[in-house]
Amino acid sequence: MRAPTPLVLAMTAALLASGCFAGDPAADAGASNGRIKLAMLQPPRSGLSPLSDDAFKLSRWSTAETLVTLDAEGTALPGLATGWQRISDRAWEFTIRAGVSFHDGTALTPAAVANSLDRATNASPKPRILDGVSLTAQAREGSVVVTTGEPDPLVPHRLSSPQLAILAPSAYTPDGRVSPVGTGTGPFRLVSVNGTTTATLDRFDGYWGERARAAGIDVSFVPDGAARAAAIRSGEAHIAEAVPVSQAALLDPATITEVPMPRTNTLYLNTRSGPFRDAGLRAAVREAVDADEIVRAVYEGRADRAEGLLGPALPWAAAGRAPLAGRTAPAQPRGAAITLATFSDRAELPEVASVVQQRLEDAGFTVTQVVREYAHIEQDALAGKFDAFILSRATVLDSGDPVAYLKSDFTCDGSFNLSGLCDPAVDELVRAAAATEAGDARRAAVLAAEAAVLRTDAAIPMLHERVIQGDATSVADSAKDPRERTLVTTATHLR
């Protein structure tokens, strides 16, 4: 286990000194007055805009809500919409829940819903869930009609994405900015955000559903995993997300929950430029990487070796996956110089990079490693400035369906295509999967597209992570969500 850097130690000390955490575990419940103290992994990257990945923070805090929710199996359920029906090949009508108030006191109306959806559709860049999707929303009496440019069998699932949360009209400014402060509909009202350091939420007593049991949520953003785990041990936090594997064994087993999740640790290889334009060298990487070693040495067995892009959180993937045939034969690296990059926000990834670097050098590559915080490396990764990039990637995060992930990461026009992959066969199979109705046929189409991606060796899946969450023994009923959409709910409280 590496010691925290001086910067991280200074940041943690500042958080503690500023009172973001209470320091006396014995007096904890009384001092917090029923408020949940939450230590989160990543600070906001886009000012908590719901049109970005920050939307998942808003969802985990139960402050911003969507028309549709998903159950554990990925089935679409009512949210701010009480029901829906498909009224044509391209149009769906959603009945809007009556009696709902936004946190600013205005009423949820079909016009407000249509406004939020139109703002997301017209945003630049678009939310990832709308990548390649043409969508319009029209308000009617008591409902909203959502129309897509092409038939889309997963519109209800798509509208469950936190990136399509419905906010009050006051959230949107003429210059395109979106503020979730005091503009959601959830059981907790976002009161304030202190940059990338803290956020404060209070219980919203005008909530349309069950009243939250906790008085509020006090959020601290603590990128250092050791500091998050230490906060659970000392009582300085009630809940800590993404506890590093190296810290899990140091915690009381009663405070640790471990759940297989749809998150894959993948090595993306740059097919646009550099040595990995050569399929043979990509195959050499595939042969060199030892996933079992990474699971054993870095994750201490708290992960699952990857057989594909989709892991055990989707049991149907393992059951339906066929052995791959016709793979490219490895070429000799002959000292090919490559840059291998990853980010430090997830504590295990720099260690994974070191193990991968050693195996690639053993295979004959010359490797330079780059590690930064995610906020400082994402842009370069998307611009193709690295030959290889290790990413911990959720595979069904947006819609509860992996097609959105396959499209964004592996198609020619994908918005998160780190490999720069542009393969007509992959594009065609992803399009076919996207057009298939939900059920066994869609799952088979997804696996066909996955196989096509794997044959390119543009992405080398190494392992599937597990959710390791820390909960103080004083906490009851926090959510343990493999999709990382929910965390503090109306039921979460202090004993």
UniProtKB/TrEMBL annotation:
Gene3D superfamilies membership: Dipeptide-binding Protein, Domain 3 (3.10.105.10), Periplasmic binding protein-like II (3.40.190.10)
Signal peptide segment: 1-22
Pfam families cross-referenced by the UniProt entry: SBP_bac_5
Keyword terms of this UniProt record: Signal
GO cellular component: ATP-binding cassette (ABC) transporter complex; periplasmic space
Keyword Isomerase: no
PROSITE patterns: PROKAR_LIPOPROTEIN (PS51257)
Protein name (Swiss-Prot/TrEMBL): ABC transporter substrate-binding protein
Taxonomic source organism: Saccharothrix coeruleofusca
